[in-house]
Amino acid sequence: MHRIVVLNPKGGSGKSTITTNLASYFAARDQKPTVMDLDPQGSSIRWVNKRDQGMATVYGIAGFEKKAGVTRSFALRIANDSQVVIVDTPAALDPQRLPEVTRDANTILVPVLPSDIDIHAATRCIADLLLIAKIKREEQRVAVIANRVKRNTVMYRALMKFLHSLQIPVIATLRDSQAYVRCFEQGVGIFEVKPYAVREDIEQWQPLLGWLTQRDTFSIPTLPIPETAIAPSMPVSATSAAPVVVEPQVASIIQSITSTTATAPATVAVTPASKPAPSISMNTLYSLSSKGNASIGRNGNVDDQIRSESLPYWFLQK
Questions:
Q1: Rounded CA gap, 77 and 105, in Å?
Q2: pLDDT tens, 195-254?
Q3: 7 closest CA partner among 139, 136, 99
Q4: What domains are there in the chain, each with its CATH number?
Q5: What distance lies between CA 255 and its chain's CA centroid?
Q6: R_g over Cα of the chain
Q7: What is the pTM of this model?
Q8: What are the pLDDT digits (tens) for 259-312?
Q9: How far apart are the first and last CA of the chain?
């Protein structure tokens, strides 16, 4: 069973949209996915309840509910025939819960919007995954989805440069489309409607789906999306970028990245093994994480003992 965790403590990043459309993809391939909704807002579980009985099976678990007389493990039990579990996490997730939420995750997807606020939140989220949840980078379990993007804008380029500097693979860029809203209202995903109505949206999901289904933990053969559902790439018209006010802390990060990277990455997917070490310093990443209030040693450096206990060994060897 493959477990996918969709995580970003920043609200409004599109976690429920990605969760429900992933579920629709696997449901359309008869893999009976389970949507585990840990968000008290219950958006994903509401989507499951909207589905008609004649549709492909999607199990739903309201993980945010607490039922008297029922143990937590029993309430979160997975159906025996479910082959994929997709966990929709809540906003403002306590960083100390990250090890619990990600412990059994085969894949962790972090949706990020191209805005100053979201770049700052993504910095904290990724830092906490590495430092608190102790996710080892060489396992390549974490990937980023650039969501609701408008290409050729200042913040989109800043987002891509920031993610490139951390060597976190950006496996998809999804546009801001009303198709997701219409599908959600009907309890379906874009993979369960007529392809001609969502051709461009389906095309943008291809890198993400390919990355997911080719991982070692996926021993289940998955059918490719029909060629008729894929439209050829369309040129993106240039848009004028509106002035953006960038928070000083984030601006310094972007500036340090820009000074070492002349242009944005040519491709969306970044292969960590083929890229140089992160350009953001260890102390900067540490200070942006939830552990950043730890004691500081001489010359403003993080104490070596605290650092050795908190940082994965790959980062100490940068």
A1: 15
A2: 898 999 999 999 999 998 877 656 444 444 443 333 333 333 333 333 334 445 444 544
A3: 99
A4: 2-229 (3.40.50.300)
A5: 24
A6: 20
A7: 0.71
A8: 433 333 333 443 344 444 445 555 666 666 776 654 444 444 444 444 444 444
A9: 34
